[in-house]
Design a protein that fits this description.
Coagulation Factor XIII, Chain A, domain 1, monooxygenase activity, disulfide bond, 9 strands, six-stranded mixed sheet, disordered N terminus, binds 2-acetamido-2-deoxy-beta-D-glucopyranose, disordered C terminus, three-stranded antiparallel sheet, signal, alpha+beta, oxidoreductase
Length: 408
């Protein structure tokens, strides 16, 4: 019994943290880098839990109360690109053990270059049959230093990488016109909505970020519009400044789809042309009057611009150089923001703690279910034993009866 349970728990732990692990975006500027421990945790993976049917405060910017260490930001070089790691566990990134446990892939393992599985690749859990089916991921930016001031309407998608998540390293392109951040930096978010292959969940992670080499002071246009499903009909797409995709949560969804896509699968709104997102830097997100000169971070010079060419080679073999079309949204619309869609209470920062508690609760629930299942199996066994004993008894009884008859 004890061994069985131990084995079961070991399997459970493997399922949660091992081979089939989910994926998250990693960078020293991320929230929840160390998970829930409060101390350095080189093996943290609290952040990889997917978000599904949660109240707003539990999915919004996952783990907002565990900010990165002071001075840690993603540097966004205007007109350049920045590097992010996708992994199932911090241990499988360059942020742990000097990269000792990393590979080309998100889980430290090796796979063929044309890795594919018609029944969905689950290890790592990329929610795709092959790279061409990887849904796409995105980065968004809000010009607020305090994460409590970030709303769905002021968090604007500025970069998309098609056919990701796939390999561990992704380069995202930064619009050349991205203006500089306030002195304490901006808040960024990473998003992924997988395309089928399992639970239709989403990812929404927070980072501290800042723009370097900014040349423009035209702000990112807010409020951003919610993106819309427009597969195969570009004129139906929402252009310009767009919110991230929020769906399949208990509250705060900004996208609802029904029916099937052109492939015949259930529609899944992703960071791709099906939702009007082009690959690469989103160059059509600006508008409004320049903000008063503010920043001291604009020429921090700390970032090493990476080549966009390299980015294309690295992670988007199937993507075209379809740069966004225009920067035409120079309308004089005011940068004023709409009221917050959710109450302050709903915006209460979520902690890794809460996430951990939720995971623990789920684990307990699974264990309880397993316990019940084992009890049922035991009862079944007992019942079968009884039935067998009854049969034997009846057989023996019959035998005796026969004997008895005979002996008469
Ligand atoms: C494309 O979208 C536009 C705008 O929503 C709509 O008017 C038009 O009928 C759509 N075309 C097709 C072929 O569905």
């Amino acid at each position: 019994m004890f061994t069985k349970r131990t084995t079961y728990l070991a399997l459970l732990a493997a399922a949660l943290g091992g081979a089939n692990a989910h994926l998250a975006a990693w960078h020293e500027g991320m929230y929840c880098l160390n998970g829930n421990t409060g101390n350095q945790d080189l093996n943290s993976y609290d952040i990889v839990t997917p978000l599904y049917q949660l109240p707003f405060r539990d999915w919004w910017c996952t783990a907002t109360s565990s900010p990165p260490a002071a001075g840690k930001y993603i540097d966004l070089p205007a007109g350049g690109s920045f590097k992010i790691e996708i992994a199932s566990n911090r241990a499988k990134t360059e942020l742990s053990y000097g990269g000792r446990d990393t590979s080309e892939w998100p889980d430290g393992q090796s796979y063929p270059q044309d890795y594919h599985d018609a029944g969905c690749i689950t290890s790592p859990n990329m929610h795709a049959q092959d790279q061409s089916r990887a849904a796409g991921t995105a980065f968004a930016i809000s010009y607020h230093s305090d994460i409590k001031d970030v709303t769905p309407e002021n968090l604007v998608v500025f970069s998309v990488r098609y056919n990701t998540p796939w390999k561990r390293i992704i380069y995202y392109d930064v619009p050349a016109s991205l203006p500089s951040c306030p002195p304490d930096g901006c808040t960024c978010a990473w998003g992924w909505v997988p395309n089928g292959c399992g639970q239709p969940n989403m990812y929404h992670q927070a980072f501290k970020c800042r723009v370097s080499n900014a040349k423009s002071s035209v702000p990112v246009k807010v409020p951003a519009a919610a993106p819309k499903w427009c597969e195969g009909n570009e004129s139906a797409c929402v252009g310009g400044s767009k919110q991230m995709i929020y769906w399949n949560q208990k509250e705060g969804n900004n996208v609802v789809v029904d029916g099937r896509d052109r492939r015949g699968d259930f529609k899944s709104p992703g960071y791709n042309m099906g939702m009007g997102f082009r690959d690469g830097a989103q160059n059509d997100i600006f508008g409004g009057s320049p903000a008063p000169a503010s920043s001291s971070t604009s020429s921090s010079g700390g970032s090493k611009p990476t080549s966009t060419q390299g980015a294309k080679v690295n992670n988007a073999p199937t993507s075209t150089a379809a740069g966004s079309t225009s920067t035409s949204s120079s309308s004089s619309s005011s940068p004023a923001e709409t009221p917050k869609a959710f109450s302050e209470k709903a915006q209460r920062p979520q902690s890794c703690q809460r996430k951990r508690r939720r995971a623990a609760a789920e684990r307990r629930e699974m264990e309880a279910r397993e316990e019940v299942r084992r009890e049922e199996v035991k009862r079944e066994e007992v019942k079968r034993e009884e039935v067998k004993r009854e049969e034997v008894k009846r057989a023996i009884g019959g035998h005796h009866a026969v004997h008895a008859k005979r002996s008469f």
